[in-house]
Amino acid sequence: MKIATTRFGDLEIPEENVVAFPEGLPGFDTRRFILLKHDQNPIVEWLQSVDQPEIALMTIDPRELSLDYRPDPKPGEVRAVVPEGADQDQLHLRVIMRVGEQAGTLYLNLFAPLLFNVTKKLGMQVPLVGSGFSVRHVWPAAAVTGAPAAPAPAPDPED
Q1: Which of 4, 40, 97, 150 sees the fewest Cβ atoms within 10 Å?
Q2: What is the torsional sign of CA 51, 90, 72, 107?
Q3: Which pLDDT tens digit goes with each residue over 75-110?
Q4: Cβ atoms 112, 94 nearer than 8 A
Q5: Is the dihedral of CA 128, 132, 135, 139 positive or negative?
Q6: Which residue, among 109, 46, 119, 78, has the nearest Cα to 33 in the 3D structure?
Q7: Is-above-0.90 flag for pTM?
Q8: Strands 44-49 and 19-20, sheet pairing
Q9: How many of the other CB atoms lie within 10 Å of CB of 58?
Q10: Which domains, ranges and CATH numbers included, belong to the chain?
């Protein structure tokens, strides 16, 4: 299958790589996407619309950033990608990210992660209402606070 993209040009992709979003993706009219690896950064995947060339969202597995992030959607919230009674462990987790205004800063949408059922080629975005997670989580946190990324070592009393 051939798809046109504004970011990556024309792509030839196998039909079986298309992921359907049965409930759509909030804010977009398209329901079919593919996940594309990023050549220069292997932890980044682009969620590229199959039907709208201009829609491509950067995504990342939040575990790659060493975040203590454990979304816990209720079974009813993920029914579009996990049939009732199926195991949620088969889900592939990603969050949408964008580059911040300050160099080296990323904004992560932890409030509404993307969940993919890789076996069934289904995806959805799950708003975690009441979770306290932000749609604009700043990473690394030091970029906002001005604090060093890691604590400075204590001075050696021998010096």
Answers
A1: 40
A2: negative
A3: 788 888 876 655 666 788 999 999 888 778 889 999
A4: no
A5: negative
A6: 46
A7: no
A8: unpaired
A9: 17
A10: 2-143 (2.30.290.10)
